[in-house]
Design brief:
single chain, 116 residues, mainly beta, 7-stranded mixed beta sheet, 4-stranded antiparallel beta sheet, 55% strand
């Protein structure tokens, strides 16, 4: 059974940084593509970033490009999202997703709040 657990969220001032972690069990993250999504209150869940299983490619939403970086540590079976220059509009619950054999697995999310 796949389990994804996000952590690292919190309250930060605009311009600050946070690093989110997504620890996986039941599957090896190096075998699958991993993504980060976010959902703000009253809004649809939106894509933030992805990393391919080989880590050869990454991709970002335009709204976070140049500020966020997705990485993976295969030894720790964990994917990270480094978030710099945070803005109030980055406030949301952040979720990681594993795409494995045609199935999507989601964590329960971690809250990020950016104050102005």
């Amino acid at each position: 059974q796949v389990q994804l657990v996000e952590s690292g969220g919190g309250l930060v001032q605009a311009g600050g940084s946070l690093r989110l972690s997504c620890a996986a069990s039941g599957r090896t993250v190096s075998t699958y593509a991993m993504s980060w999504f976010r959902q703000a209150p009253g809004k649809e869940r939106e894509f933030v970033a992805f990393i391919t299983r080989s880590a050869a490619s990454t991709g970002y939403a335009d709204s976070v490009k140049g500020r966020f970086t997705i990485t993976r540590d295969n030894g720790k079976n964990t994917v990270y999202l480094q978030m710099n220059s945070l803005k109030p509009e980055d406030t949301a619950t952040y979720y990681c997703k594993m795409t494995a054999n045609g199935n999507d697995y989601w964590g329960r999310g971690t809250q990020v709040t950016v104050s102005s």
